[in-house]
């Protein structure tokens, strides 16, 4: 009991004293500045205040009365506390109650008040100062590294161009201050690239790029914030190099294989013309199939001239002037031949060979209608001052050098000479027929047919008719008893007194030289005789648009297509096909050449389309094969074999 009373009394005493003291001395309110400005570095707890936090009290500097007991902060959300450091001097400090995150809040504003100690620590009789505003700014720490906005960047550029900016990359940074959150620099990490990046993330190329050299670049790019903190992860930038748009055919293969027996095969099924948006009004494409190296300029059936004439329904009665040498046809034995196969025999004349055709093989009177046909590959041409080069000549055997009829080449002209016999009246008559044709000197094989329906003479070259550009008249030949000599490869000079000899030799190759008196060949037969079994074709003609005009040459080795509409031209070109109807075609390469011209709407400069060089490869036909299968060993009792023997003997 005594123990309980004593402390109570003590407390009463203490309080009584203080109350009296305060009542006497605490007359003034404490005083602080009206505003403070503070700075705190994030994640730290001390706030640097300006001015420093000091509260003053005018009361006498005795315990409690002149002392400062507390600073109070108004604003519950402010994560700060103010602590009194020295009650006598009134100094205090402001600090964070929990770590301050600048990224959450950059500034704080709140009210602070100072309290004096009044009558004691308990708060009784405390006087408070006026309210002061504290404004705190949180200082940033460069915690965050830049991060790129995209996981990967992509861009495309056209070769040969320099760009100011191909693309812009962008990084950002979570830090709260401009210094640490702004991106001050970008850098390309990948060494030796033809690219550069500026402070804003714009990537440009430092040199002209070439699609042929490299079509794709991958570069790694990093970023730095203004506090020099580097992105933890670089970003990949993919740059595709686009070829500069070049007008031309696209989507075609250099080589198309042709399998024998497959009919018509499309050569460029995916072809299309890139015009680079050029404003064209029409397109004209010429497709050429070059087969000059195959046989006689094209793949043909290799029947003998005789069989072919039968197959083509040619009238009988023609004479082969260049047959394969044999016992009965030995006048060609001294000539040079190129091919071993007698079905496709080629005679080569190098200016020294000629043959006398036996008398009476060809009737002397060819009548008014007759046909001379031959395959000819003329050349090399000996130049402009050249002599005549004779293919076929009928001249005086002796005494004179008169040419009755002859076929010769002179300065790339083909001339047919036909002197009539002096029969009834002595009149001037057509006697020399001249044709000037490129084919004569192009060193390629062509099929020539001369159809005589006197006085008209028509030449067919590869099935196409040509009228002579020049016809000269002459007198008929006076009748005489002199025999004539028919020759091939030169003309017979019978009038040479000492040694009759050949003259006007031919240079080139001949094959299938025939003469047929009494009748001329029809054009149908002529085209059949020279018919080529390979050529260009249009797969499904009817599907060609109406806007497409097309034209084949007779040999079907040249196809010209023309149209105003690009799509139709593209479709038409995909339908261009190669066909070889032989069962066993000559295998090997045939070149293809496509030249294209484009017209534009009144434009001076129109795009030009590069020519295409491609090829058809005719594959070797699969050889017929007989396979015999069976067991490797066959065991039979000897008795049975004997039985067979015995039976056979019977
Ligand atoms: C408190 O402040 C008073 C007055 O300025 C000074 O005399 C005293 O030494 C200070 N006390 C401490 C513990 O610093
Ligand atoms: C051709 O054969 C005949 C006999 O059949 C002979 O007289 C002639 O000399 C031969 N000519 C040649 C060029 O071999
Ligand atoms: C040659 O043919 C012409 C015209 O067919 C004919 O008038 C003349 O009798 C013939 N001459 C001889 C020798 O067969």
UniProtKB/TrEMBL annotation:
Alphabetically sorted, this entry's keywords are: Calcium, Cell adhesion, Cell membrane, Cell projection, Endoplasmic reticulum, Glycoprotein, Golgi apparatus, Membrane, Postsynaptic cell membrane, Repeat, Signal, Synapse, Transmembrane, Transmembrane helix
Specify whether Repeat is a keyword of the entry: yes
**Pfam families for this protein:** Cadherin, CLSTN_C
Lipid bilayer topology: Single-pass type I membrane protein
Q: Which InterPro entries match?
A: Cadherin-like_dom, Cadherin-like_sf, CLSTN_C, ConA-like_dom_sf
One of the record's GO molecular function terms:
calcium ion binding
Subcellular localization is given as: Cell projection, Dendrite; Endoplasmic reticulum membrane; Golgi apparatus membrane; Postsynaptic cell membrane
Please name the SMART domains in this protein's record: CA
CDD domains, A to Z: Cadherin_repeat
Q: Pull one GO CC term from this UniProt entry.
A: cell surface
Q: Which segment of the chain is annotated as a signal peptide?
A: 1-22
Show where the Cadherin domain sits: 32-148, 149-249
Primary location: other
Q: Which GO terms describe its biological process?
A: homophilic cell adhesion via plasma membrane adhesion molecules; positive regulation of synapse assembly; positive regulation of synaptic transmission
Q: Which family does it belong to?
A: Belongs to the calsyntenin family.
The name this protein goes by in its record: Calsyntenin-2
State the organism of origin: Alosa alosa (allis shad)
Its organism's taxonomic lineage begins at: Eukaryota, Metazoa, Chordata, Craniata, Vertebrata
């Amino acid at each position: 009991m005594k123990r309980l009373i004593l402390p109570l009394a003590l407390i009463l005493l203490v309080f009584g004293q203080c109350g009296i003291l305060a009542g006497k001395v605490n007359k003034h309110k404490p005083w602080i500045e009206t505003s403070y400005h503070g700075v705190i570095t994030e994640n730290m707890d001390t706030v640097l205040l300006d001015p420093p936090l000091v509260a003053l009290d005018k009361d006498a500097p005795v315990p409690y009365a002149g002392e400062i007991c507390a600073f109070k902060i108004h604003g519950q959300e402010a994560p700060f506390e103010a602590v009194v450091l020295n009650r006598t001097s009134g100094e205090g400090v402001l600090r964070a109650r929990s770590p301050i995150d600048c990224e959450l809040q950059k500034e704080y504003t709140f009210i602070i008040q100072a309290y004096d100690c009044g009558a004691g620590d308990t708060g009784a009789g405390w006087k408070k100062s006026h309210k002061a505003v504290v404004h705190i700014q949180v200082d940033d720490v460069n915690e965050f590294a830049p991060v790129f906005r995209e996981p990967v960047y992509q861009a495309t550029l056209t070769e040969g161009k320099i760009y100011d900016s191909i693309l812009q990359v962008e990084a950002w940074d979570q830090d709260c201050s401009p210094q640490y959150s702004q991106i001050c620099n970008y850098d390309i990490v990948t060494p030796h690239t033809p690219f550069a990046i500026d402070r804003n993330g714009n990537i440009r190329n430092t040199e002209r790029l070439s699609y042929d050299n490299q079509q794709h670049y991958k570069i790694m790019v990093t970023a730095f914030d203004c506090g020099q903190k580097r992105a933890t992860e670089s970003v990949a930038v993919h740059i595709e190099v686009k070829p500069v748009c070049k007008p031309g055919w696209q989507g075609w293969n250099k080589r198309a294989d042709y399998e024998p027996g497959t009919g018509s095969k499309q050569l460029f099924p995916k072809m299309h013309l890139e015009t680079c948006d050029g404003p064209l009004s029409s397109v004209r494409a010429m497709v050429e199939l070059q087969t000059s190296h195959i046989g006689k300029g094209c793949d043909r059936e290799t029947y003998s001239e005789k069989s072919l004439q039968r197959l083509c329904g040619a009238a009988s009665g023609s004479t082969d002037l260049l047959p394969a040498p044999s016992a009965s046809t030995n006048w060609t034995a001294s000539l040079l031949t190129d091919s071993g196969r007698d079905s496709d025999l080629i005679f080569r004349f190098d200016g020294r060979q000629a043959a006398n055709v036996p008398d009476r093989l060809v009737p002397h009177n060819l009548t008014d209608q007759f046909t001379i046909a031959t395959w000819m590959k003329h050349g090399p041409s000996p130049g402009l001052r050249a002599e005549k080069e004779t293919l076929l000549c009928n001249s005086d055997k002796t005494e004179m050098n008169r040419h009755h009829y002859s076929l010769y080449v002179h300065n790339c002209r083909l001339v047919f000479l036909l002197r009539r016999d002096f029969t009834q009246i002595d009149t001037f008559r057509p006697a020399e027929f001249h044709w000037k044709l490129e084919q004569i000197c192009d060193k390629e094989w062509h099929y020539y047919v001369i159809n005589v329906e006197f006085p008209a003479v028509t030449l067919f070259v590869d099935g196409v008719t040509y009228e002579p550009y020049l016809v000269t008249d002459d007198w008929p030949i006076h009748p005489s008893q002199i025999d004539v000599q028919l020759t091939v490869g030169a003309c017979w000079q019978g009038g040479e007194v000492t040694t009759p000899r050949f003259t006007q030799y031919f240079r080139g190759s001949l094959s299938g030289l025939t003469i047929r008196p009494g009748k001329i060949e029809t054009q149908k037969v002529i085209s059949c005789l020279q018919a080529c079994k390979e050529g260009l074709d249009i797969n499904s003609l009817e599907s060609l648009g109406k806007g497409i005009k097309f034209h084949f040459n007779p040999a079907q080795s040249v196809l010209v297509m023309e149209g105003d509409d690009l799509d139709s031209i593209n479709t038409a070109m995909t339908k261009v096909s190669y066909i070889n109807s032989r069962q066993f075609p000559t295998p090997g390469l045939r070149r293809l050449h496509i030249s294209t011209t484009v017209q534009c709407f009144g434009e001076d400069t129109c795009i030009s389309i590069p020519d295409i060089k491609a090829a058809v490869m005719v594959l070797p036909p699969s050889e017929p094969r007989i396979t015999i299968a069976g067991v490797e060993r066959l065991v039979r009792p000897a008795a049975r074999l004997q039985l067979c023997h015995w039976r056979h003997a019977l």
